[in-house]
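Treating backbone geometry as a discrete language has practical consequences that deserve illustration. The amino acid sequence and the backbone structure tokens for this protein are reproduced below.
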Amino acid sequence: MLVIEDDTELLASMTNLLSEYFTVISATDGEKGLQIIKNQNPDLIISDVVLPILNGFELCQTIKKDLYISHIPVILLTAKVSITDKIHGLEEGADAYLTKPFHFDVLLAQIQSLLSNRKRVAERFRKSEHLQIQEGTHTSPDLCFLEKAIAIIEENIANSDFTVQIFQKEMNLSNSVLYRKLKALTGLSPLEFIRNIRLKKACVLLLDNQYNISEIAYKVGFNDPKYFSICFKKEFGKTPTEYQNIESELS
């Protein structure tokens, strides 16, 4: 994680305490912090609001509008205690806002909460049988990114030769950026993400009751219906037939 703080004594103290739990990198101004964020893509950012060159509000706004780094949680720290300042921080996209002085255990609990929440959102996406993304779980750039990724795969859903390389080209992203972004948002590699979307689409077709299992397998890009069934059960905990029967009973 990255800690940005211009008070060198406080920075050293926070870095020392956090290093017992995380790998910590640091910066003393917003501009240097932003460079580190773009180069190293930390799992979480803790930033003071009052910083040289680029303040915490401006830094947070820049992060949340940048597709490549918008998924990274941001905790803002400040001595400003007014409600207006807190609202300003949250409006700029801060995931949490702590007022100085703060107890280290409170900061640690907030960090763990944000990281755990990100894992829960990713797990919920993976296990969901629906192609629609749950509202309120992602920032606007992240939502646009996921919707575009899903749309591209849906357009190529029956193409068993649709590879990660083609996906990467369609997304207009480097392999490393695509991998890092998908992993952060969904916990899946690009290859796993493609398969996950194929299987979600299979759920839609199974509920239509217009095709048999083998036909659905081919329609979502699997060349082997048996392998399709294995992947489906691994992803959703039930075979395609079991899923179809359960959903029919519920409807």
